[in-house]
Amino acid sequence: MPDFIPSVQTVDHPPVVFEPLHDDVGPPERRTGGSAGYDVRAYIHNRLVKLRQGDTGEARTVQCTDNTLVLEPQDIALVPTGFKARLPTGFEAQIRLRSSMAFERGLLIPNAPATIDADYPDEWFVMIKNDAPRPVRIVHGERIAQAVLCPYSVLRWTEGTVHATTDRAGGLGSTGTT
């Protein structure tokens, strides 16, 4: 656990309820007082991991017996975290890859940022794709992603006519290139 006092004041919301699924799993942690994200670790010790092979698209399950998961180029894996969590109503967890995983290893989260809803009851997973031209290893216990806890609003949708509110028109590139 980091030995610092968070520099950001904790807002008075109900806590996140954390349930470890293994004795050696702790809750995600912020590494610095200014960190927005809580680091999430891979929990792959002796675990089955769902994988979609990049070359064929075939879904399969691999057994991680040596605390390592190897992703071949274009493989997508659901990397388990070893815990469940219940977020307060009105919050989501946005899952983002740690920048070092992207820059140094060529990994990405295909549906970034991924969302974990407040009412999701099962183990958290991180969907990771190997976008590198070489195999990439993920090791048990390493920090692979960040969970950023975000409030959201539930709004009512109503049918009507949508009028322009500015002189903007068009889609991609509609605000210009310079």
Number of helices: 1
Q: Tell the overall outline.
A: globular
- The SSE order reads EEEEEEEEHEEEEE
Report how far apart the termini are.
46 Å
What is the mean pLDDT? 91
**What is the quaternary state of this protein?**
single chain
Order of strands across the main sheet? 4-3-6-11-9
What is the helical fraction, as a range of percent?
A: under 10%
Unreliable sequence segments: none
- What does the largest sheet look like? 5 strands, antiparallel
Strand content: 35-45%
Give a summary of the structure in a few sentences:
By secondary structure, the protein is mainly beta. The chain contains 1 helix and 13 strands, in the order E-E-E-E-E-E-E-E-H-E-E-E-E-E. The protein is globular, with a radius of gyration of 19 Å.
How would you describe the overall organization of this protein?
This protein has 178 residues and is mainly beta. The protein is built from 1 helix and 13 strands; from the N terminus they run ββββββββαβββββ. Strands 4-3-6-11-9 form a 5-stranded antiparallel β-sheet. A 4-stranded antiparallel β-sheet has the order 2-13-8-10. Strand 3 and strand 4 form a beta hairpin. The radius of gyration is 19 Å and the shape is globular. The N and C termini lie far apart (46 Å). The relative contact order is 0.21. The mean pLDDT is 91.
